[in-house]
Amino acid sequence: MTLLSTEELIRYSRHFNLDQVGVEGQERLKNGSALLIGAGGLGSPLALYLAAAGVGRLGIVDFDVVDRTNLQRQILHGSAGVGKPKLESARARLRDMNPYIDLELHPVRLTSENALDLIAAYDVVADGADNFPTRYLVNDACVLTGKPLVSGSIQGFEGQLSVFNYRGGPCYRCLFPSPPPPGSVPSCAEGGVLGILPGVIGCLQATEVLKLLLEIGEPAAGRLLLYDALSLDFNQLRMERDPQCALCGDNPIITSLVDYEDFCGSGQTDNDPVVEIQPQELVGMLDKVLLVDVREAYERLICKIEPSLHVPLHRLADHPWPESGDRTMVTYCKTGIRSADAARRLHAQGFNDVRSLAGGMMAWIDRIDPRQEKY
User: Which fold has domain 32-264?
Assistant: First the structure.
C-alpha cells in the first residue's frame, strides 16, 4: 500500500521511471522535511523546486518584506507583493505549485535564541542567506543539532555551493574559521548580483537536498563548487574536516550559539578614525559641510541629497578636490558602508575632519525625506 494518493501518483509520475527514485523514493520525499533559510534569491528556486518535487514538509524562515529591488531575481515574488511579507507571496505561490505538501512558515529573524529549535525539527537545512552573520549561525546550529547543511552563496557573477556537516565531513568553519572583519565585505544591501545567478545556485542546492533525502548519488560534502557565470566555468575544490576546527574538530571550543550581527554593520571600532554623523544632525549643517556622494551615477538618478559633490568611491584618489577651508567633509552612500570606507581613505589622504552619514541614503529617506524613492 503506497502512501501516495492517486493525484500524487499522477503528479510525480516522471520520477517513477528513475531507478534511483521510483515510488519508494517518492514516499521517502513525502516523509522528508527541509528547512530553507530565506525566501529571497536562493530561497526562491529552492522552495519552488522542492515543493514541486514533493518534499512533504517544507519550512521557510524569513521576516522580510518584498521590495521592488527583489523582483530582478527573487522569482517567488511579483509586483503585487511589494510591501508585503515575503512569506505571504511564498505561501500563495507554493500552495498553487503543490497543495499536497505541508508548508511551515516562520516569520522570524533567525537568532541564537531560536535557531537550535527551528533547525532540529527538520531533516535537512538549506541556507539561502545573503549575509555572514546568518551563515555562521546556521552552520553552528546545524553542527550542534547534527543536521546536514546545503550551503549556497552568490555575489556579482559568481556562486559557491557545498554540503557541510554530512557524515563526518567538514563544516563551514573548516573552510572559513571565523567571520570576516567588520566592514571588509560589501553591505548586505549594496552587493550587486546578476539576476539569473541565484537561479543556477539555488537549483543546485535543491538538487543536493533531494539527494540527501533520497540517499542517492554523491552529495557535495567535502567539495566546494565554484561557478563563474561570465566564463561558464564550474570548478571544484576538495576539502576535508579540520581536526582543529573550533566547532566540529576533535576538541571543539564552540559549544553554543553566538549572534554575529555586527558583521553587517559599518565596521566601526574604537580605533576607527571615521566619525559618523546622524541624518538629523546633518540637516542643520548642509550649508556648512562639503557633502560627497560616493555612489555610482545610476544611484543618483533614483535619489540624492543636495547640494552634494558626486565622486564615486573608485575615483576618490585621483579626484581634484576643491578647497574646503574649515568645512567638515561628509561622505554618504546607500547604507553607510562605502561612505565609511571613503572617509577612511580621505582621512589617509590628509583630510582630518571627515565624517560618514550613518545609515546612508536609506536612513536619510526614512528620517528626513520620505518623498524620495528607495532602492
Answer: Rossmann fold (3.40.50)
